[in-house]
Amino acid sequence: QVQLVESGGGLVQPGGSLSLSCAASESISGYYVMGWYRQAPGKQRDMVATISSGNRPNYASAVKGRATISKDNAKNTVYLQMNSLKPEDTAVYYCKARRVRNGLEYWGQGTQVTVSP
Q1: Helix, strand, coil proportions of the chain in percent (round to 5)?
Q2: pLDDT, tens digit (0-9, with 9 covering 90-100), for 3-40
């Protein structure tokens, strides 16, 4: 099964930017729909952005215009760039891979993002 390792979280000031990375242990090109999700304390885990095997992005309304998801198939890595960060963006951010062939899903361990002055 694919293993996912997120990196890039941390403390960011409101209005700032962050860049998260998700490195997969195997090729993601054409095999997986990749996505970023987040979970704030006491809340459910919500989709932030996904990118299809054909490189089609999809964004949650809460981040549309502020987030960009991309992937580098040669590096088996998916990225999330977010700008104009708000305190409500504070959450643990998770990477997910959904295998196109059978729908199986795999999650990373998550990385904390805190937006605070």
Answers
A1: 5, 50, 45
A2: 999 999 899 999 999 999 999 999 988 889 999 999 99
